[in-house]
Amino acid sequence: MRTAVKTTVVAVAVVALGLWLTAPTAASAKGKIKSKSCASAEMALLTTGQGDSDGDGLSDCREGKQLGTNPNDPDTDHDGVSDGDEVAEHCDPHDADSDHDGVEDGDDDSPGMPQQQMKAFLDALTCPQVGVPGSITALGTTALLDDTTEFEDTTCDALLAQLQTPGTVVKVEIKIVEDSLGALTATEVETEHDGDDDHSHD
Questions:
Q1: Which of 16, 44, 104, 131 is the most buried (most CB within 10 A)?
Q2: pTM higher than 0.90, yes or no?
Q3: Are 119 and 20 spatial neighbours (Cβ–Cβ below 8 Å)?
Q4: β-strands 115-126, 150-151: how paired?
Q5: If residue 176 lies in a helix (H) or strand (E), which one and from where to where?
């Protein structure tokens, strides 16, 4: 599997009452986040290599409680790409053709799920821990944060500290993918500053 991930940026400009944002087509969707803790299972996998029955790089706990994939099958959707590789590359381990281009992920040069982009004021943030996903909320949309989420010009902890500072308004640009089960995951988070040009990032 090649690691290139196709990015399809879907942005709709909205200007109302001075609110600055670019909303994704799924902005009204409520992210389905499975946040049950797998901290001990993930730590055991990292330190001992135990707890991954199918050898796909994902703990049985994470597959069963958070991802909904089969912990006894390394390739839940049988597309030729392991569940662990699909998660790492922002593909859908439940869908053999993550980007719906007619080519199964295992044969696709750029199999990643299409990404939506939103720019908005940050409402809430919970940073992920080992085995426990976090979440980010902006414009009423909540997306999961996991160990594959990239923070471009900051860290999750620094962004949280900024959000918790009285009188501080935090603007963010978030790239989000939605899998076939309707779960939203943030793939990239970047802070925006006054005066920044409206743009998208590859």
A1: 131
A2: no
A3: yes
A4: unpaired
A5: strand 171-178
Q: Please provide residue 106's backbone torsions phi and psi, each rounded to the nearest 5 degrees.
A: -65, -20
Question: Six-digit token pair at 165?
Answer: 């500072």
Measured at the alpha carbon of residue 198, what is the angle toward residues 109 and 98, in degrees to the nearest 5?
Answer: 25
Alpha carbons 99 and 105: distance in angstroms, whole number: 8
Distance CA 94, CA 97 (A): 9
Torsion angle of the four alpha carbons 62, 185, 171, 7, in this order, in degrees rounded to the nearest 10? 140
DSSP 99-140: T-SSS-GGG-SS-PPPEEEEEEEEEEEE--BTTB-EEEEETT
Question: What DSSP designation does 34 have?
Answer: -
Q: What is the pLDDT of residues 105-149, one digit of tens each?
A: 999 999 988 889 999 999 999 999 988 999 999 988 999 999 899
- Residue 90 structure tokens: 């922002």
